Amino acid sequence: MRSLVAASSSGFQHRIWEERHLGQEGRVAAWDLSAQRLATARFHILSRDERLLTSPDRMNKAGRRLGSRWRRGSVDDAELSGLWDEHATAVEAFVAASGAVVGRGSAHA
What we know:
By secondary structure, the chain is mainly alpha-helical.
């Protein structure tokens, strides 16, 4: 479950990169937001670790800020870079928190 949440969020960021740098229109619009929400909800139901439960929320908030700014168009490079870094850091924190739980032998997260 953790891997689905992290992969979906990273996939979103990659889609922005594809639109921005490769000119592939519609990549962000085609991203499956409902799958991300479902995976996050399942994760919350199955996880018991408080640190782990807060990290996908931070990751999703950072993703919403990044996506919202990107969808508006005419994005300032410095602002987008900051939002990009914020989202990437949140994904990394989620993966690190997940790894710590797996290292402790959690069977449900």
